Recover the amino acids of this structure.
């Protein structure tokens, strides 16, 4: 029989939870879906060896719901991928997020794993990150007596490093409802179709007016050290007339940009042409659908 | 920690160590050894059980987390000593060889049919994507689920 070898608390509300998190000299971790943490703890992963206390947030309903309030979609931190995939608000307004989470792991995993758990350790392959970045997601971070909002982009500091303080919890993901004319797509490449860790993910959102890109947002994951927006390419693209040459040009620019970030690696010769082709196809499909 | 939950339609109350996994509670405390442990890391699906209508990996859930839930294991789907149509059809179509993946496969299929009595082949594949079988090659498993879906609809 396997034993997790640590203390577990199950706070019933946010207040109890924040008090537990505020205890200074205790090495605690949040337990939500557990699909990463339980495996990590059992396998003796470095990330969890000093964890003395697990704070299980599953009983706190406030953290586990999806709402549309005014022009913002609010996703509670411990909402599962399956719940997101099947939610009406998400289906209607955030199709890229739906597509991304529906490709994570297996159904058994998606029934437990949570949205905040996906990005809170800032692993480069977190599939929810590129869509959340193009949707301009913000996070609400709470701690005892304190609350702050930060963009996901700023939260994700460096590989496996975030802005989250020890006594803080990601409580909500806040996404402005995208304009009705915004269209886009998400693409994931793994070693096989299902239950695969991503090698490359791309998300694109754009608004096309009079055959030019009125607005465009581009983000990648897995192929870059952390999920990332490409503002230079976005700015270059704005107002440009759409034709095949532009799409080819943009795909080349994205490849060069990624190479600049990651440096030349043994895998570059394989990954770069794939990224460029994927990006070209994504753009092309979006433009054709329009 | 004392927990109370429905297990295969019977309510039980039991004292559990909060640091053990659901699979250990099932297999070692409750002697329900139909649920198998393959990889222990959420990859193989051999440990699949149903919690509140959803298929989950019992190696990735802690035992106390089923407090107040409705849990179904492979032992809970036959009635009055009669096998469930999924079990019958797995046998008939040759969807079982060594049988190690079978309880998990059947629970994934059971959860699918609870939600979607009329699944397409793609939907079946998606539902069992988290269940590995080293023997059969999956075709027979998909057949067994398709036949069962038809039978269950009557
Ligand atoms: S034993 Fe749980 S998924 Fe393999
Ligand atoms: S029958 Fe042997 S693993 Fe599936």
């Amino acid at each position: 029989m396997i034993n997790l070898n640590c203390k577990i608390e199950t706070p019933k509300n946010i207040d109890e939870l924040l008090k537990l998190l505020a205890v200074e000299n205790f090495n605690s971790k949040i337990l939500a879906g557990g699909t990463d943490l339980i495996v990590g703890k059992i396998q003796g992963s470095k990330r969890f060896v000093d964890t003395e206390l697990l704070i299980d947030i599953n009983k706190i309903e406030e953290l586990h719901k999806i709402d549309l309030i005014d022009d913002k979609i609010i996703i509670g931190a411990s909402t599962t991928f399956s719940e997101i995939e099947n939610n009406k608000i998400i289906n209607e307004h955030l199709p890229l997020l739906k597509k991304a989470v529906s490709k994570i792991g297996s159904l058994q995993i998606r029934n437990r794993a949570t949205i905040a758990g996906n990005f809170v350790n800032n692993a480069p392959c977190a599939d929810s990150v590129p869509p959340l970045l193009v949707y301009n997601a913000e996070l609400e971070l709470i701690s005892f007596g304190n609350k702050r909002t930060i963009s996901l982009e700023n939260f994700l500091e460096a590989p496996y490093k975030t802005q989250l303080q020890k006594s803080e919890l990601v409580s909500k993901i806040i996404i402005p409802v995208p304009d009705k004319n915004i269209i886009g797509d998400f693409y994931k490449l793994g070693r096989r179709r299902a239950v695969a860790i991503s090698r490359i993910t791309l998300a694109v959102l754009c608004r096309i007016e009079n055959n030019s890109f009125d607005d465009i947002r581009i983000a990648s994951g897995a192929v870059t050290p952390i999920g990332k927006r490409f503002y230079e390419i976005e700015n270059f693209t704005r107002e440009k007339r759409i034709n095949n040459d532009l799409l080819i040009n943009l795909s080349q620019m994205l490849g060069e940009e990624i190479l600049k970030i990651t440096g030349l690696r043994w895998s570059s010769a394989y990954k770069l042409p794939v990224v460029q082709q994927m990006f070209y196809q994504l753009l092309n499909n979006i433009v054709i659908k329009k | 920690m004392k927990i109370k939950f429905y297990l295969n339609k019977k309510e039980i109350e039991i004292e559990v160590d909060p640091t053990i996994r659901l699979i250990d509670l099932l297999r070692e405390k409750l002697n329900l050894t139909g649920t198998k442990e393959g990889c222990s890391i959420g990859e193989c699906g051999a440990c699949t059980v149903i919690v509140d209508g959803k298929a989950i990996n019992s190696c990735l859930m802690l035992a106390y987390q089923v407090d107040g839930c409705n849990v179904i294991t492979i032992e809970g789907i036959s009635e009055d000593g009669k096998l469930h149509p999924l079990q019958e059809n797995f046998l008939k179509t040759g969807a079982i060889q060594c049988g190690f993946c079978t309880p998990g496969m059947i629970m994934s299929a059971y959860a699918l049919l609870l939600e979607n009595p009329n699944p397409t082949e793609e939907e079946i594949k998606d539902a069992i994507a988290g269940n590995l079988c080293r023997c059969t090659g999956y075709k027979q498993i998909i057949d067994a689920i398709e036949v069962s879906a038809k039978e269950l609809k009557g």
Summary: The mean pLDDT of chain B is 96. Strands of chain B lie at 2-7, 10-15, 48-51, 54-57, 70-72. Residues 85-153 of chain B form a domain with the DNA polymerase; domain 1 fold (CATH 1.10.150.120). The longest helix of chain B spans residues 139-153.
